[in-house]
C-alpha cells in the first residue's frame, strides 16, 4: 500500500488564508488547521483580486447579475472587472492543473464556492441570491473530482475529516496513474476497499466490475473510467450507519479468537457510537488494536483505519460531528 507519508498532496489555496494580508480591507487570516496541514502538503497560494491588478486595501467588489450574465463590479468606482477575472481564471486553471485539492476563501466574490452573494444590481440595498464566486465556480466545475472546501466550512470536524480523506485518496490515485501499472491499481483498489465500502457500497460494486475487466482494456482507458467512479464514491461523507457496517465486518475477522466479554465490549462501544455518545475513533481504534494483535494482513493494509496522517486529527474536537 502507498503510505500516507509517501504522499505530499498539492493544494491550491486562497492567499489571504495565512499567506498574505491581501483581503479588500488589508487584512488576512490565521487558520490553525492550515498551519497544522503545512507540514504534510504543498501549498500553491493565489489571490485573484490582487493578481488582476487590484490594490490592497481596495474598495469592495461584488457579483451582479445583469440579464443572464454574472458581472464582477466594484460599486464605488463602477469598474467592471468581469473580463479581467475571466481571463485570469483561464490562466489559473492551467497553472493549477496538477493540484490534488483546494481550500478557498469562504463567501468571497472571487474564490467562494457557495453562499456567495450575487446581487440584482450594484446599488446599496439590492436584493441578492446565493451562488459561487467567479474563480471558485470555475474551480468546482473543472476539478469536481477533487477535494474542494472553503476555510469556513473546514472548522466543522466532519467536513474536515471528509476533506482530508478525499484529498489523500485522490493524491494516492494520481501516483498510481503515474506508475502506469495494473498491479499497482489493483493494490490501490484492494487497500481502499473498506474505506470505499463505508462511503458508497453501490459505487464500489461498479468499481469492482471495472477492475475485473482490467485484462481486456488498456491502462490509460482503465484509469479514466476508474477515476470517474472513484470521484463519485467520495463525493459526500459516509453515513454513520455505513461506518458501523464496516466496523462489524472487521470484527468478523477475529471475533472467534476473543472472549465473549471482549466481544460484548466492542459491540457496546459500536452501539455508543451509533447513539452518538462516543466518536467514530473510539470503536475504530479498539478494533485496530485487535487487527494488530492478530496480525490480520488484509485489515492491516486497509486505509479505512488511517485514511490520512493521524497527526491531522484534532483531538480537541474529535467528539464533534460524531455522526
UniProtKB/TrEMBL annotation:
Which residues are in the DUF1722 domain? 194-309
Domain of life of the native organism: Bacteria
Name of the protein this chain belongs to: DUF1722 domain-containing protein
Pfam families listed in its UniProt record:
2-thiour_desulf, DUF1722
Amino acid at each position: 500500500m502507498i503510505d500516507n507519508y509517501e504522499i505530499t498532496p498539492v493544494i491550491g489555496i486562497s492567499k489571504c488564508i495565512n499567506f498574505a494580508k491581501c483581503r479588500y480591507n488589508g487584512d488576512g487570516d490565521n487558520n490553525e488547521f492550515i498551519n497544522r496541514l503545512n507540514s504534510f502538503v504543498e501549498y500553491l497560494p493565489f489571490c485573484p483580486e490582487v493578481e488582476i491588478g487590484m490594490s490592497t486595501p481596495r474598495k469592495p467588489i461584488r457579483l451582479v447579475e445583469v440579464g443572464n450574465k454574472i458581472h464582477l463590479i466594484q460599486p464605488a468606482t463602477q469598474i467592471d472587472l468581469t473580463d479581467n477575472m475571466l481571463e485570469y481564471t483561464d490562466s489559473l486553471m492551467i497553472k493549477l492543473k496538477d493540484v490534488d485539492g483546494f481550500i478557498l476563501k469562504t463567501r468571497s466574490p472571487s474564490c467562494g464556492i457557495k453562499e456567495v452573494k450575487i446581487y440584482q444590481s450594484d446599488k446599496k440595498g439590492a436584493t441578492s441570491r446565493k451562488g459561487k464566486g467567479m474563480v471558485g465556480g470555475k474551480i468546482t466545475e473543472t476539478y469536481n473530482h477533487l477535494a474542494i472546501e472553503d476555510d469556513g466550512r473546514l472548522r466543522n470536524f466532519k467536513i474536515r475529516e471528509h476533506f482530508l480523506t478525499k484529498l489523500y485518496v485522490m493524491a494516492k490515485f494520481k501516483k498510481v496513474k503515474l506508475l502506469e501499472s495494473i498491479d499497482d491499481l489493483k493494490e490501490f483498489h484492494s487497500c481502499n476497499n473498506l474505506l470505499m465500502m463505508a462511503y458508497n457500497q453501490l459505487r464500489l460494486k461498479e468499481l469492482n466490475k471495472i477492475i475485473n475487466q482490467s485484462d481486456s482494456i488498456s491502462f490509460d482507458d482503465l484509469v479514466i473510467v476508474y477515476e470517474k467512479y472513484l470521484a463519485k464514491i467520495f463525493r459526500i461523507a459516509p453515513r454513520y450507519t455505513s461506518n458501523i457496517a464496516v466496523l462489524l465486518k472487521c470484527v468478523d475477522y477475529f471475533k472467534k479468537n476473543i472472549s465473549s466479554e471482549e466481544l460484548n465490549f466492542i459491540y457496546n462501544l459500536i452501539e455508543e457510537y451509533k447513539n452518538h455518545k462516543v466518536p467514530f475513533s473510539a470503536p475504530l481504534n479498539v478494533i485496530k488494536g485487535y487487527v494488530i494483535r492478530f496480525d490480520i494482513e488484509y485489515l492491516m493494509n486497509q486505509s479505512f483505519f488511517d485514511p490520512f496522517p493521524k497527526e491531522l486529527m484534532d483531538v480537541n474536537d474529535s467528539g464533534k460531528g460524531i455522526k
